[in-house]
Specification:
The protein is an alpha+beta fold. It has three helices and five strands. Strands 1-2-3 form a three-stranded antiparallel β-sheet, with no helix packed on it. Strands 4-5 form a two-stranded antiparallel sheet.
Length: 124
């Protein structure tokens, strides 16, 4: 194989082989301030809770059949009302919320970490 290097801007380099080109890029990450890191963690918790909230709401809608006045099935309801084209998506949200509930029931929290007692088996 023959190697050739092309000159590019300082943060990129392309190495060419006769049958392959590789592009590598140097990426520098900017450190967050303590306040920015706290804000990121707060926002990440909101994102994590959103699937949890959605999963719990979908479980109640499904279990109480609160869609039955306009839709024939839970899957049809989720597709038309929420745009869930994948039939499994609402069930995944429900299952994920169940996992979170299990973790909260079975874990001892140490700051942002959870330790599960060995005597428990977590299930969905």
């Amino acid at each position: 194989m023959t190697k050739k290097a092309k000159k590019l801007p300082a943060d990129e380099l392309i190495t060419e082989h006769s049958d392959l080109s590789i592009l590598s890029e140097v990426v520098e990450f900017e450190e967050l301030t303590e306040e920015e890191e706290q804000e990121r963690l707060r926002l990440e918790r909101q994102v994590e809770r959103s699937f949890y909230t959605a999963g719990n709401a979908l479980k109640l809608l499904r279990d109480q059949r609160l869609y039955r006045d306009k839709w024939r099935s839970f899957e049809e309801y989720c597709r038309e009302r929420f745009g869930y084209l994948n039939r499994r998506h609402p069930y995944r949200l429900i299952e994920a919320a169940t996992v979170v509930d299990n973790l909260f029931d079975k874990c001892v929290l140490y700051g942002s970490q959870c330790k599960v007692s060995e005597s428990y088996s977590l299930t969905v």
